[in-house]
What does this fold into?
Amino acid sequence: MTQFGRTLTILTAMVLYFAFAGMCSAGENGPSILVTDVGQGNNAKIIRMLMKKNKIANIKFKEVATEADLEGVGTVIVGVGASTKGLGAAGLDLDKEMARAKKLLDKAKSQSIKIIGVHIGGPARRGELSDTLNELVVKSADQFIVWEDGNKDAFFTKLAKSKLGDQASDEDLASVFRTVKSKRDVGSAIKETIGQ
It folds into this structure.
């Protein structure tokens, strides 16, 4: 091989290497996925753990997220379900948490950031306090995932249907709402929903 041939081979290899490295880093450094809590029921921590188990990349975690935390974010995963203890520890009450969550979700919508609501707390994260927040998140979310134990009364199904309107088909409902049989299935459901 001539000197020119060797140089050309080395240059080609370098170009391919840097092109491949650029593609990999673009995937890793693309828009973040913000995982946050509404209701401070410790749901976001569980969701983050399940996402990591499913090798979902670019996770940004903030339990009490604000509009400022949306910088560089392409998707917001909202774990919802209230805990009076969690709210108190965060220095919040229901009114403050509702106001914070509404500002965050409205800002995300205004920036065309995808919102995925997740209810993973089962019956323990239902009831009057939780359901006020659950309703807010379902109405704001582009898609909603619920562990079926928390939907035995079809509360979330009814909310999703009312959001879509009377003419919505089962296919329409399935495109924005799904139940999972086990908490462990939430991570894979999120992975499918975001397309990673």
The beta strands are 32-38, 59-61, 73-80, 114-119, 143-147, 177-180. The radius of gyration is 21 Å. The domain at 30-194 is CATH 3.40.50 (Rossmann fold). The chain has one domain: 30-194.
